[in-house]
């Protein structure tokens, strides 16, 4: 696939950070569309947990800062700010206690949106309120502390593993509010001072965004290394178990089917014994490559054990699963050193059809049917 010079420059730049990133992984630093389910779930949980952490800090500091307002700006100003202070503390506390460990990216987006909305509301209220008051000396200096709130928000973006697009979307509102608010709250604006402030905000946002993308880059590499089997390039068993847990829960909630095919390679143990493990690994790798070439969009191949694979087919009914497996086998699974074809014993199951309660039952049923196929001589498929 031909890539633009700008894309090539982006890939080269990030290869300097993590030299073993692939082009697809580097594209995942820009947008989340190429992220796998496991990475999405981990990233979403991380974002939500860190939103809760920041909200907890703000929930504690908001009412405590009332004492600072009273000392620095006087009791009248503190009393006027008390309602928004206490309401924001309540809102931040609600974020802490209402959010839980979540796997969906929309939950992470919602958590970020709520947090940033509460912060923006406090900043706007304070800015417009201070514009009506005539502060002097220490009072004016203390009120300036509120103007640094957008800088704190931008800096806090550094703790979130966000893509380039997500980071820009989260940063723009803080920059816009901080830039536009003085037009309504100040009688005169110094252009040089406004430009300098904008430059600093953009710089802080850029550094925070770089830190967030660096976290995401590390997550992408670790996810790939822990999610994929190095020999067959299939999903590893630990990654497959997490994937099955998520997919089964999702399809169960939506009332949708999910089918599994347990694929057990025939004669691989004999090939290892007759030749050597290197030859057996080559045969297994070739078979896995051929299976990958025939996968439907959305299907996942998991290396479940030494010579066994699990094919996960979301939203596939029994007939569709049989058709998919038939297509997988139509091109063959390669050849053995003695020129005989590589074959497999396959068992198929589907959540609704077999009335399973969890994904482990799906695995057990499919594995049992795979054994039945082997007892029938192998190179066949068993499924109700």
Structure, described:
A 5-stranded mixed β-sheet has the order 2-3-1-4-5, sandwiched between helices. About 2% of the residues have low confidence. Strand 2 and strand 3 form a beta hairpin. It has 2 domains: 212 residues, no CATH class; 147 residues, Alpha-Beta Plaits. It is of the alpha+beta class and 384 residues long. Helix 4 runs antiparallel to helix 5. The chain is elongated. The chain is 66% helix and 8% strand.
Supply database-style keywords.
384 residues, alpha+beta, Alpha-Beta Plaits, 2 domains, five-stranded mixed β-sheet, 15 helices, 8% strand, elongated
Shape: elongated
Overall pLDDT confidence:
82
**Order of helix and strand elements from N to C terminus:** HHHHHHHHHHEHHEEHEHHE
Fraction of residues in H or I helices: 55-70%
**Span of the ends, CA to CA:** 42 Å
Brief summary of the model shown:
This protein is of the alpha+beta class.
Mind sketching the topology for me?
Elements lengths: L4 H11 L7 H5 L9 H37 L1 H24 L6 H27 L6 H7 L4 H8 L7 H22 L5 H37 L9 H18 L3 E8 L2 H7 L2 H17 L6 E4 L4 E7 L3 H13 L13 E7 H4 L4 H17 L4 E4 L1
Parallel strand pairs: 4-5
Antiparallel strand pairs: 1-3, 1-4, 2-3
């Amino acid at each position: 696939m031909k890539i633009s010079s700008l894309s090539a420059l982006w890939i080269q730049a990030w290869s300097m950070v993590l030299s073993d990133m692939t082009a697809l992984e580097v594209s995942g630093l820009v947008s989340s569309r190429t992220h796998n389910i496991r990475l999405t779930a981990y990233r979403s949980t991380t974002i939500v947990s860190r939103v809760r952490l920041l909200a907890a800090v703000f929930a504690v500091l908001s009412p405590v800062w009332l004492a600072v307002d009273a000392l620095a700006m006087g009791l009248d100003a503190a009393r006027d700010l008390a309602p928004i202070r206490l309401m924001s503390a309540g809102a931040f506390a609600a974020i802490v206690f209402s959010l839980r460990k979540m796997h969906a990216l929309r939950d992470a987006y919602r958590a970020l949106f709520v947090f940033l909305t509460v912060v923006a509301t406090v900043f706007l209220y304070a800015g417009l309120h201070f514009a009506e008051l005539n502060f002097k000396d220490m009072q004016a200096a203390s009120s300036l502390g509120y103007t640094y709130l957008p800088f704190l928000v931008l800096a806090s973006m550094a703790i979130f593993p966000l893509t380039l697009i997500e980071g820009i979307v989260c940063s723009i509102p803080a920059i816009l509010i901080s830039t536009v608010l003085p037009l309504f709250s100040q009688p005169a604006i110094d252009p040089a001072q406004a430009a300098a402030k904008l430059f600093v905000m953009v710089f802080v946002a850029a550094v925070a965004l770089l830190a967030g993308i660096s976290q995401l880059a590390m997550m992408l590499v670790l996810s790939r290394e822990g999610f994929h089997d190095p020999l067959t390039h299939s999903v590893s068993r630990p990654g497959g178990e997490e994937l099955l847990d998520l997919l089964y829960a999702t399809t169960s909630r939506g009332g949708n089917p999910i089918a599994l095919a347990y694929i057990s390679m025939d004669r691989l143990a004999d090939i290892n014994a007759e030749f050597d493990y290197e030859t057996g690994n080559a045969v297994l790798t070739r078979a896995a490559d051929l299976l990958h070439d025939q996968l439907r969009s959305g299907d996942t191949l998991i290396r479940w054990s030494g010579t066994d694979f699990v094919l996960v087919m979301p939203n596939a009914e029994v007939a569709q699963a049989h058709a998919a497996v038939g297509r997988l086998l139509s091109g063959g699974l390669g050849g053995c050193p003695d020129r005989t074809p590589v074959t497999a014993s396959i068992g198929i199951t589907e959540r609704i059809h077999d009335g399973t309660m969890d994904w482990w039952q799906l695995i057990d049923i499919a594995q049992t049917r795979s054994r039945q196929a082997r007892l029938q001589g192998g190179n066949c498929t068993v499924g109700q």
